[in-house]
């Protein structure tokens, strides 16, 4: 094995501190971290205290550990579950790695569980470095022979990411030693001079770039680059179940792609890895292809919740504006992948629109994937539910403790564990600090001018006030940049009690550049008045509807807030009241504390339909229809739905008259 | 082999002439037949002259015949295609059997092709009667071991139906001899005293009841009954791809079911077979379960086109009102199955609503499955298309010559071939004649009163006038019943030039009972004024829209009728004009001759959306939006879409203001 000198590490999942084409650079957990209170810190703690332990029990029950024992030759029996079972273990380990850096570190049971998992991976690894329990146990003769469906490179990618997390956050190199050996047979098969081949499920691309960032070994970057370069030429063939090569983004070469297509998680893991390659190589054609696809994604294929991927069939993006509500797929993993991609584009460009989408996705389409109790998960995150159990296929009305295909739960765990990373950045040249996400937090960095420490205090997302106090400042000038969320209609910025005007740059940030003094205080007042949002006229599934949003939160109507004789699916928003009449109320005892939004609703009378799905307009009854019943309209944050009695839910709300956009 | 006395045969696919629980009885081709001109006769001729020959070429190319040769031991190579390839051959043979009874019979090439196929089936059959090329060639050891996915009983059912068609229409018993031997190993495995077992894909139930009707052998009926009785107890286990047993209607016992659920074709083939069992046994619990499911189907899960099954994933029915437009599945086979089911319910009950649905389905969701040239097919029949080729999964913008899963094309052929059967019935006690579908046709039956002959002349569906002339009548009284389609708002009935009033019975039929004279003429004037149809308020995918219908035809907007700068997806129907202003124009040179419908349209301006899928209402521009551009709205019959340059299409049309239902 080649000796690898691991570079001095800091605790961060994406280390762009030396990336030559990063406009901004991500911060380590030592530089930017959530304070122990607040919306996200509470969830991060629950992740450490409840979800990670639950995850290990589920991995044990589902057979993931058993499969590794089979590969190690220390157990008997059949392989269990789908081909990518190993990746659930390594994603969980990645999440535990992040938790190891939290105050107090890992508790004894989590440490023991992690030791067990790491030990099993070490024991299962073959002498040549190969490690994939499915192919070792079930089909050793088909190693590297089923790139389209086999997930070997996907599993390797997740192992590499777990290894990097343990190295950087836990300062423990056991997994890294395994991962570096795992890369060896991959290099032998796919490296320079070897036959072309790409993974059916992208993921290893971003892992290899990150490994390059950790080890400085160019071969890791080059291997990622090869997987990017060879993609889109049909090497994978048609997908056996879903037809075209578009399913796994093998229809169009990466640099020529202008549409986001196929399996959503594959598509977004690929674009994440491609953007990582750009950050290291600066190849303009890659960035341009990414920006084209991001525009296609957000302009024509994005759910209001930040959800991505509209089709159950193929778990795929659909045609433009094909965004069904009840049959939205919006896999939790796709929301996570979207956040990872937009983060890298934010670092590459310095444009707030990417942080805006991260925020939208975090608070809505990602967070809905996790129950308030931290132990149940949604795989599919629809925007409407009839509240009926599903009898065919995926998509249920209650979150589940685990899944046969269990990619989402450990993915939730690893994103929550590394969330501090997405708070802030610094300029590539150290001129200033950018705050992207508002949460109680501490930021301490060395800028070009010298050491800076900030404290962010806020009750976000419930209150719009964000106070930033400078606790330490050098003698020279530096800039503070604060994202202005696009949804904030009237935003106020104050410095030491005086309004600051015209501080907006062209990319969505307030910029205050000055020589700061300790004790300086910036107050950002975001406009949290509940607002109505209209769908694009071609968004068929939401025609005649509006959505309610407040700050970063998308709202929904859920049956438990309505009387039994008022089906929430029949509730329309009364537009004869002006939008200003939407009001918000803090409910400390509801759903762990939420701000509800209130308006006036009207109940549509469906009794006259006599069990018909359509009716001729010529057959209308004489006389005017009865005046619809009024009902108080109550909306809760979308992320919190399905934490009470299962029942109907809807995000897009019919209106009593056209909205006239 | 047991000696079987085949009862005296007549040419009809469903022989209810002796079914004890038939309210009405179906007619043979000798008793009711299409005249050689008219909407359906033209299509039937094209079926014989073009489609059947095309079908044989495709079966040859796709490997269906090759597979039978492998089973017969007369060819070398690998089995090709999915497990149910044999059923495509036998469905095609069934269609050829119907064609054999047409004037002039089969041409030489079709006869030769049929002889080839029959010969291959005979050669492939094993000495014990077993015949299924997949299990014979690929997996002989798994015979009857994969009932959930193996399709052996499904293939056997289609063979039986083909055999019956050849016996009855071509008076040729070669296939029947094969089919009777095929039933032997099935009886040995599934008959009395044998372990329980049901087919993963229903179909054999209706085939076995029909075989009982042909042979009079009760064991055939009893075997069908066993498959019905044993279903719904989870014998099939969870489906490997789509989860629950609901996928193949094995979740709820047949007599307890109240919802139509799971794979649409399986569900509707099953209900067809169950209704067949009822017609022979009269078991009330079966009919009640069928009527409950039919109400669930038509009240909550039916497409305006008659299409059935909303989901690509699992090809399944969705939740109530889950009826997406662009992602409608509406498999052509499901439309055919729906017609077969409603026909049997019509025979069981004598209620016009079943014939109404047959009509809706025939003219729309079924017929859209076939190109005007008779050589290309839709598997999936959406209600909206963005006009873009599909890159993942099924669903395309152009009809295809054939499919890897080619169930639909030969199913279209067999329904077209047997269409005469659905025209008319007689009472069980021979008191009168019921005309269900209006087409140029001749009806000649022996009623209780004596021999009757009628001639039906009409330009239906383009004109609403239907003339029925009595050519022969006995001296005693008998009744003529004419279906009044529910869509006909103002209908006029005349007898020998004088208006007939109050002739409607309670079930949707005009009844004229009298002693008829040769030369008597009844004229039915149906109201073909174009009408607007509204969706149920919970039909999310059509909110804010109406559809245009004219007579039995559902209309759609298609891009070739609009200028390039007016995307048909942006066209709204101007409701400021009264519905009476919808007008129709005969276009002899368009799409083989169609009546187009015209109105005033408005173009929605989407330019202001700047590539966003949603937009805050607070950010509306000052001033009122520009007045929308007016565009002539042109609609064509839905069945005829996608026969010109591929482009966008929509059935549900947005309106400029709420329709107020």
Tag the structure with descriptive keywords.
homodimer, 661 residues, alpha+beta, ten-stranded antiparallel sheet, seven-stranded antiparallel sheet, 14 helices, 23 strands, 31% helix
Can you offer a commentary on this structure?
Two copies of one chain form a homodimer. Chain A is α+β, with helices and mostly antiparallel strands. The first copy, chain A, has 14 helices and 23 strands. Chain A has helices at 39-62, 64-72, 85-99, 108-124, 133-137, 152-169, 174-190, 204-215, 218-229, 264-281, 284-300, 332-349, 352-366, 408-417, and strands at 24-26, 32-34, 384-385, 424-427, 432-435, 441-447, 450-458, 465-472, 478-483, 492-495, 498-499, 509-514, 521-525, 531-535, 545-550, 553-558, 571-573, 583-587, 594-603, 614-616, 629-637, 649-650, 653-654. In chain A, strands 3, 14, 15, 16, 17, 18, 19, 21, 22 and 23 form a ten-stranded antiparallel beta sheet that branches. In chain A, a hairpin with a 2-residue loop joins strand 10 and strand 11 (498-499). In chain A, helix 10 runs antiparallel to helix 11 (284-300). The first copy, chain A, is globular and about 80 Å long. The relative contact order of chain A is 0.10. Strand 14 of chain A pairs antiparallel with strand 20 of chain B, so a sheet runs across the interface.
